[in-house]
Design a protein that fits this description.
Helices cover 31% and strands 20% of the residues. The protein has helices at 25-33, 54-59, 83-87, 95-103, 133-137, 139-154, and strands at 10-15, 41-47, 62-68, 78-82, 114-120. The longest helix has 16 residues, at 139-154.
Amino acid sequence: MPCKSRKPRILIAGLGNLLLMDDGVGVHAIQELQKNPPAGAVVVEVGTAVLQALHLLEWADKVLAIDAMHAGRRPGTVYAFGAEDVAQGGVQASLHELNFLAALDFLKRRTKPEIVIFGVEPEKIDYGLDLTPAVAASLPALTAAIREQVRRWRGEREVCGG
């Protein structure tokens, strides 16, 4: 079947536990993005309920996941990498990202969506609803990077399948 020209279906998924300070950075980023969602993207707070988002993963051509990630840099550092980097062990990922990638195995479709993961180096993971100042200060740069990734994806001309 020939390809049809259409914009990709883009999902932005915020991962993490909002009750554990910086672990909830993905959810906090989603709350910021929901104030002015990027054009052409569905913005969803997934939290730790990854399996409940399977229907959205089935729908999406492109997925942007946001989560806290320990990689040894200064708290608030923003990382961007492909899902294949995590799957092949190239990047130390959080528990949520591994659950997120494992959930892709449950998809019924043949081709998996393209996935980009944005991670933020946490400072403190402990009981609490607020981000630490360093991680909270990273939110504008994080949301700007997310918006830029969506713009790049929206610029693509052709999507095949589904």
